[in-house]
Protein backbone atom coordinates (compact mmCIF):
# COMPACT_ATOMS: atom_id res chain seq x y z
CA UNK A 1 0.00 0.00 0.00
CA UNK A 2 1.47 3.39 -0.96
CA UNK A 3 2.33 5.91 1.72
CA UNK A 4 -0.31 8.64 2.13
CA UNK A 5 1.15 12.11 2.25
CA UNK A 6 -0.69 15.19 3.44
CA UNK A 7 0.60 17.37 0.62
CA UNK A 8 -2.78 18.72 -0.48
CA UNK A 9 -3.93 19.54 3.05
CA UNK A 10 -0.62 21.23 3.91
CA UNK A 11 -0.63 23.19 0.67
CA UNK A 12 -4.18 24.45 1.31
CA UNK A 13 -3.30 25.46 4.86
CA UNK A 14 -0.23 27.32 3.64
CA UNK A 15 -2.25 29.07 0.92
CA UNK A 16 -4.83 30.14 3.51
CA UNK A 17 -2.13 31.71 5.72
CA UNK A 18 -0.45 33.41 2.75
CA UNK A 19 -3.81 34.84 1.68
CA UNK A 20 -4.26 36.37 5.16
CA UNK A 21 -0.89 38.14 4.90
CA UNK A 22 -1.82 40.15 1.80
CA UNK A 23 -0.42 43.62 2.31
CA UNK A 24 2.33 42.57 4.72
CA UNK A 25 5.83 43.67 3.78
CA UNK A 26 8.88 41.78 2.62
CA UNK A 27 8.96 38.02 3.24
CA UNK A 28 6.03 38.25 5.66
CA UNK A 29 3.61 37.72 2.76
CA UNK A 30 5.71 35.36 0.66
CA UNK A 31 7.37 32.76 2.89
CA UNK A 32 5.08 30.48 4.89
CA UNK A 33 7.07 30.41 8.13
CA UNK A 34 7.45 34.20 8.28
CA UNK A 35 3.85 34.65 7.13
CA UNK A 36 2.54 32.35 9.86
CA UNK A 37 4.36 34.38 12.53
CA UNK A 38 3.02 37.56 10.98
CA UNK A 39 -0.58 36.26 10.99
CA UNK A 40 -0.35 35.19 14.63
CA UNK A 41 0.87 38.64 15.66
CA UNK A 42 -1.63 40.43 13.42
CA UNK A 43 -4.58 38.52 14.85
CA UNK A 44 -3.36 39.15 18.39
CA UNK A 45 -3.05 42.88 17.71
CA UNK A 46 -6.48 42.96 16.09
CA UNK A 47 -8.05 41.28 19.13
CA UNK A 48 -6.30 43.60 21.58
CA UNK A 49 -7.02 46.77 19.63
CA UNK A 50 -10.72 45.98 19.29
CA UNK A 51 -10.84 46.38 23.06
CA UNK A 52 -8.58 49.43 23.08
CA UNK A 53 -10.77 51.15 20.50
CA UNK A 54 -13.55 51.52 23.06
CA UNK A 55 -11.30 53.58 25.32
CA UNK A 56 -10.00 55.58 22.35
CA UNK A 57 -13.52 56.51 21.32
CA UNK A 58 -14.44 57.57 24.87
CA UNK A 59 -11.30 59.74 24.96
CA UNK A 60 -12.34 61.38 21.68
CA UNK A 61 -15.87 62.04 22.93
CA UNK A 62 -14.57 63.60 26.14
CA UNK A 63 -12.20 65.87 24.17
CA UNK A 64 -15.06 67.06 21.94
CA UNK A 65 -17.42 67.65 24.85
CA UNK A 66 -14.70 69.47 26.75
CA UNK A 67 -13.96 71.79 23.81
CA UNK A 68 -17.64 72.60 23.33
CA UNK A 69 -18.18 73.15 27.07
CA UNK A 70 -15.17 75.47 27.26
CA UNK A 71 -16.62 77.49 24.37
CA UNK A 72 -19.57 78.12 26.71
CA UNK A 73 -17.34 78.95 29.69
CA UNK A 74 -17.56 75.62 31.52
CA UNK A 75 -14.91 73.01 32.21
CA UNK A 76 -15.66 69.39 31.31
CA UNK A 77 -15.89 68.31 34.95
CA UNK A 78 -18.32 71.12 35.83
CA UNK A 79 -20.38 70.32 32.74
CA UNK A 80 -20.66 66.60 33.61
CA UNK A 81 -21.29 67.44 37.27
CA UNK A 82 -24.06 69.81 36.19
CA UNK A 83 -25.63 67.08 34.06
CA UNK A 84 -25.66 64.73 37.04
CA UNK A 85 -27.22 67.38 39.33
CA UNK A 86 -29.84 68.22 36.68
CA UNK A 87 -30.61 64.48 36.36
CA UNK A 88 -29.94 64.59 32.62
CA UNK A 89 -28.82 61.15 31.50
CA UNK A 90 -27.20 61.68 28.11
CA UNK A 91 -24.27 59.48 27.19
CA UNK A 92 -20.95 60.92 26.08
CA UNK A 93 -21.29 59.63 22.54
CA UNK A 94 -24.54 61.56 22.03
CA UNK A 95 -23.15 64.67 23.74
CA UNK A 96 -20.06 64.60 21.50
CA UNK A 97 -22.23 64.24 18.40
CA UNK A 98 -24.32 67.21 19.56
CA UNK A 99 -21.20 69.26 20.26
CA UNK A 100 -19.99 68.70 16.68
CA UNK A 101 -23.17 68.77 14.57
CA UNK A 102 -25.95 70.37 16.65
CA UNK A 103 -24.45 73.28 18.62
CA UNK A 104 -27.90 74.85 19.28
CA UNK A 105 -29.10 71.84 21.29
CA UNK A 106 -25.77 71.63 23.10
CA UNK A 107 -26.13 75.34 24.03
CA UNK A 108 -29.60 74.65 25.46
CA UNK A 109 -28.18 71.87 27.63
CA UNK A 110 -25.39 74.18 28.83
CA UNK A 111 -27.94 76.89 29.65
CA UNK A 112 -30.01 74.34 31.65
CA UNK A 113 -26.91 73.51 33.68
CA UNK A 114 -25.73 77.11 34.07
CA UNK A 115 -29.10 78.48 35.21
CA UNK A 116 -29.56 75.92 37.98
CA UNK A 117 -29.34 77.34 41.51
CA UNK A 118 -26.15 76.29 43.34
CA UNK A 119 -26.87 73.58 45.91
Question: Can you describe what's shown?
Answer:
The chain has one domain (7-114): c-terminal domain of poly(a) binding protein (Orthogonal Bundle). 72% of the residues lie in helices and 0% in strands. It has five helices and no strands. It has helices spanning 7-20, 32-71, 76-85, 92-101, 103-114.
Name the overall outline: rod-shaped
Gyration radius over CA:
26 Å
Number of helices: 5
Say what the CATH topology is.
c-terminal domain of poly(a) binding protein
Largest pleated sheet = none
CATH class: Mainly Alpha
CATH superfamily: Ribosomal protein L20, C-terminal domain
Topology as a string of helices (H) and strands (E): HHHHH
Instruction: Tell me how many strands there are.
Output: 0
What structural class results from the helix and strand content? mainly alpha
Percent in helix: over 70%
Q: Report, as a whole number of angstroms, the end-to-end distance.
A: 91 Å
Q: In terms of per-residue confidence, which ranges show pLDDT below 50 for 5 or more consecutive residues?
A: none
Amino acid sequence: MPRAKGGIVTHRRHKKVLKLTKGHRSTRHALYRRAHESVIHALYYAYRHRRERKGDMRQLWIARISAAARAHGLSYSRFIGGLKKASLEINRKTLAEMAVSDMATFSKIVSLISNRPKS
